[in-house]
């Protein structure tokens, strides 16, 4: 009975979200880490490209990250968390001031894509034994698999933030049906 209730709820949510017949929007979902990573990566890049260049300096309030700073934060987290698993940081990455220094849309997107691809490539080449390997992070023990989980959760967390930023600037996520009247690009 409980399983039936969950299935009905899932179908209700999916039908309410207008996803039937829109498989391209769901590509990768429910397909493990690689599928989910591909999905969030495509969404991050699509929204980064849809956001006007003049909005990359926009921030919702004093002391809150700007658009470019949010995307750079994702990039830095991807490389930083990967480095805990043993993947080398790019030699040309100057992490100390990247959030404030890299502000131009093209450069921000290039770094974002590079970090997303680095996660994809690193995960594709990893086996079960390596995923179970213990690592230290912030003085605590974790597994490589746990680090990949943190990477994907972090990316999705900031995807939500970035969607809010976009909508506050009149930009509808490209994967939506065009959204509401308030979603028109400014």
Question: Can I get a quick summary?
Answer:
The protein has helices at residues 2-16, 23-26, 32-50, 67-85, 98-101, 105-124, 128-132, 144-168, and strands at residues 134-137, 140-143. The chain is mainly alpha-helical and 186 residues long. It has a single domain, classed as Up-down Bundle (Four Helix Bundle (Hemerythrin (Met), subunit A)), CATH 1.20.120.
Topology (SSEs and partners):
Layout: H1 2-16, H2 23-26, H3 32-50, H4 67-85, H5 98-101, H6 105-124, H7 128-132, E1 134-137, E2 140-143, H8 144-168
Antiparallel strand pairs: 1-2
Helix pairs in contact: 3-6, 3-8, 4-6, 4-8
The secondary structure category is mainly alpha
Q: Please name the fourth-level CATH homologous superfamily.
A: dinb family like domain
First and last CA, distance: 48 Å
Strand order of the largest sheet: 1-2
Structural write-up:
The protein is mainly alpha-helical and 186 residues long. The protein has a single domain, classed as Four Helix Bundle (Hemerythrin (Met), subunit A) (Up-down Bundle), CATH 1.20.120. The chain has eight helices and two strands. It has a two-stranded antiparallel ribbon with strand order 1-2. Helix 3 packs parallel to helix 8 and helix 4 runs parallel beside helix 6. The longest helix has 25 residues. The radius of gyration is 18 Å and the shape is globular.
């Amino acid at each position: 009975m409980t399983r039936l209730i969950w299935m009905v709820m899932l179908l209700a949510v999916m039908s309410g979200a207008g996803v039937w017949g829109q498989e391209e929007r769901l590509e990768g979902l429910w397909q493990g880490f690689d599928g989910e990573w591909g999905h969030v990566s495509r969404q991050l890049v699509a929204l980064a490209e849809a956001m006007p260049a003049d909005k990359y300096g926009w921030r919702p309030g004093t002391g809150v990250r700007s658009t470019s700073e949010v995307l750079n934060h994702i990039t830095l987290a991807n490389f930083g968390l990967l480095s805990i698993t043993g993947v080398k940081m790019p030699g040309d990455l100057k992490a100390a001031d990247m959030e404030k220094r890299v502000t131009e849309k093209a450069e921000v997107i290039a770094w974002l894509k590079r970090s997303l691809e680095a996660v994809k490539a690193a995960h594709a080449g990893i086996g079960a034994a390596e995923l179970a390997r213990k690592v230290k992070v912030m003085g605590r023990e974790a597994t490589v698999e746990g680090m990949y989980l943190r990477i994907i959760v972090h990316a999705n967390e900031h995807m939500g933030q970035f969607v809010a930023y976009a909508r506050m600037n009149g930009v509808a996520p490209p994967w939506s049906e065009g959204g509401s009247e308030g979603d028109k690009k400014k």
